[in-house]
């Protein structure tokens, strides 16, 4: 039976026509697989399947995903991320509650960002969310001032101020969240001059998310991103406390948000 496999032009360019044709002919593609996004079983003889090529500094790994979870694409990651992803595929890992991300340095202003994942209830429905808060004020690039321009910079990118969490924010096209191999990898922003998206924030190591968070992300095909200035949210240990902190930041005019599609959708 022919494989219902999608191989994008980008993937074909990386692996070569011969290997791409072997995949499409079913010679090197598995019949069944675990989806690299939602981690549930798939079968490329029964359902549309995407080839996803993860490229590190020295090695590359070809993975498979339900076409409804991820399109066929090339994903560039660090070598350490790739090794971690390979371990996550080969090992039967226990899923745990998400923890705040390790601090990341965002060029060029070298600000430290903290990222927390959680499920947020809005209008009676649970949405997967990322909450971003720097640990120090972020100055506008090219300035030496001591002010905090974190929210104004995001508003200029299309994020909208939120005064209360009564409805999901609008979709911000061009931005996206990369959820792959069942883990959170990055928040992507549009590339310059219409080029390939680049990482606005990238996890030092792929972050574990709960099965409920991952299921909600694949259901909605998007993730809500909330951002607040330093000292507005804090690292909340529970989702109800995180929601309370978001409500307080919104009431104080210190919250912006957008709905970001899953990468490539």
Keywords for this entry:
single chain; 265 residues; alpha+beta; 2 domains; six-stranded mixed sheet; 6 helices; DNA primase
Question: What do these coordinates show?
Answer:
With 265 residues, this protein is α+β, with helices and mostly antiparallel strands. The protein folds into 2 domains: 5-90, no CATH class; 104-261, no CATH class. Helix content is 22%, strand content 33%. The strands form 4 sheets. A 6-stranded mixed sheet has the order 7-8-9-14-15-10. Strands 1, 4, 5 and 6 form a 4-stranded mixed sheet that branches. α1 crosses α2 (17-24). The longest helix has 13 residues, at 239-251. The two termini are 28 Å apart.
Q: Could you give a short description of this structure?
A:
The protein has 265 residues and is of the alpha+beta class. 22% of the residues lie in helices and 33% in strands.
Let me know the average pLDDT: 80
Could you spell the SSE succession in H and E letters? EHHEEEEEHEEEHEEEEHEHE
Roughly what fraction of the amino acids lie in strands? 25-35%
DSSP summary: helix tally: 6
Strand order of the largest sheet: 7-8-9-14-15-10
Q: Are there runs of 5+ residues with pLDDT below 50, and where?
A: 91-110
Report the biggest beta sheet as strand number plus sense, adding barrel if it closes.
6 strands, mixed
Query: What is the radius of gyration?
Result: 19 Å
What is the helix fraction of residues, given as a range?
Answer: 10-25%
Structural class: alpha+beta
* Total domains: 2
Gross geometry: globular
Separation of termini? 28 Å
The overall strand count is 15
């Amino acid at each position: 039976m022919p494989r219902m496999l999608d191989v994008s032009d980008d993937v074909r360019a990386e692996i070569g026509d011969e290997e791409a044709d072997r995949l499409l002919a079913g010679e090197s593609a598995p019949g069944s697989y675990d989806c690299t996004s939602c981690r549930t079983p798939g079968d490329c003889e029964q359902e549309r399947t995407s080839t996803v090529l993860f490229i590190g500094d020295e090695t590359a790994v070809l993975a498979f995903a339900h076409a409804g979870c991820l399109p066929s694409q090339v994903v560039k990651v660090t070598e350490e991320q790739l090794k971690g992803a390979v371990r996550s595929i080969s090992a039967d890992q226990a899923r745990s509650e998400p923890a705040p991300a390790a601090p990341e340095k965002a060029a060029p202003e070298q600000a430290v960002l903290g990222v927390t994942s959680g499920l947020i209830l809005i209008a009676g429905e649970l949405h997967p969310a990322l909450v971003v808060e720097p640990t120090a004020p972020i100055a506008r690039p090219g300035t030496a001032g001591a002010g905090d321009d974190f929210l104004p910079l995001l508003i200029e990118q299309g994020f909208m101020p939120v005064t209360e969490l009564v409805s999901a924010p609008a979709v911000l096209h061009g931005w996206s969240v990369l959820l792959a191999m069942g883990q959170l990898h990055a928040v992507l922003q549009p590339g310059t001059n219409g080029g390939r998206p680049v990482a606005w924030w990238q996890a030092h190591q792929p972050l574990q998310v709960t099965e409920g968070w991952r299921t909600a992300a694949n259901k909605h095909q998007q993730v809500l991103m909330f951002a607040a200035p330093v000292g507005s949210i804090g690292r909340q240990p529970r989702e109800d406390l995180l929601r309370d902190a978001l409500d307080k930041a919104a009431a104080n005019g210190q919250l912006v948000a957008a709905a970001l599609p899953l990468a490539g959708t």
